[in-house]
Amino acid sequence: MKVLICGIICLFALCEANPLIPSSHDVVSRALESIDYNNIVPRELITRLKFLTETDILGGSEIKVVLNQYADTIFNNLQNFIRNHNWQNIDIPDTHLKITGGSVDLTRGNLNDLDTISRGGDVILTYEGDNKKLVIELPITFGDLRFHYHHHTKALFISMSGEIDGTVQHVQISAIASLDLNANTIFLDHYDMKHSGDVSVHFSGNPVVDWLANALSAVVTTFMGQVIVNVMAKFIRDNLRAVIEKLNEAIADIINN
C-alpha cells in the first residue's frame, strides 16, 4: 500500500511534467525502477508513510500532508511545457453582441498568458482510512490573462472598426481528485471556477464617442467574463481529465503486470 501511494504521487508528477509521453508502461517502469523517491516524493509524506502500520491504513486513520513545495515544482514544469509547445495563447470564439441602438461583431479573438498557471493555495493530500481513498485538493490560479479582439460596431448612423485589448485578473479554480483504493481508480470529484476574474478593456484604432464607448465597454466586459469561464474551464478540465486517464492506465499496468 505504501509503495502504491508513493508510486501514484510519482506518476502524477511525471504526467504533469510531460503529458505527451507516448507509453504509460515505460513511464511506470522507469518510475518504479530508477526514480529517487527521496527527491521526488515529498519528504513529509515519506516520513508519515514510514510510521504507518497496516492497522493505520486499514483501520480508518486519516493522514493529511501539505504538498505546496512539491506542487510548485509540478506547476513550474507545466509552465515550461506550455511555453515550449507555444500553448500560451488560445483562440476564443467569434460572437455577435447587441448594444443600445446597434450591435458589435467580435472576431479574431485570442486569450494569452496561460503559462502563468500556478498554485492558488494549499495543496493538501489526505488519506481517508474510512473510505480507503487518497484525496488531493488542488487550488489553481492564473496571473494576468490578456485578450484581444477585432471589433466591427454599428450603432445608429455610426459604423466603425477597431481593436479591443483587455486583461482578466484573479482567475481562481478549485479541483479535487481522489484515488479509490478499493477500485484502484482515480476520479475527478470536484471542479469549480471559484472566481472568473476581473475584466478591463481598452479600445483602439478608431475614435469612440463617450456613450458608445460606455456601451461597448459594458457589453464586452460582461461577455468576456463568461468567455473566460468557458475557455478556462475547458482548458483546465480537459487537461485534468487527460492526466487522470493516463494515471488510471498506469495504475492498471502496475496491478496487471
Automatic annotation (TrEMBL):
Pfam families: Grp7_allergen (PF16984). Keywords: Signal. GO terms for molecular function: lipid binding. InterPro entries: Bactericidal_perm-incr_a/b_dom, Mite_allergen_7_sf, Mite_allergen_group-7. SUPFAM superfamilies: Bactericidal permeability-increasing protein, BPI. Residues 1-17 form the signal peptide. It comes from the Eukaryota. Gene3D superfamilies: 3.15.10.50. This is Uncharacterized protein. It comes from Diabrotica balteata (Banded cucumber beetle).
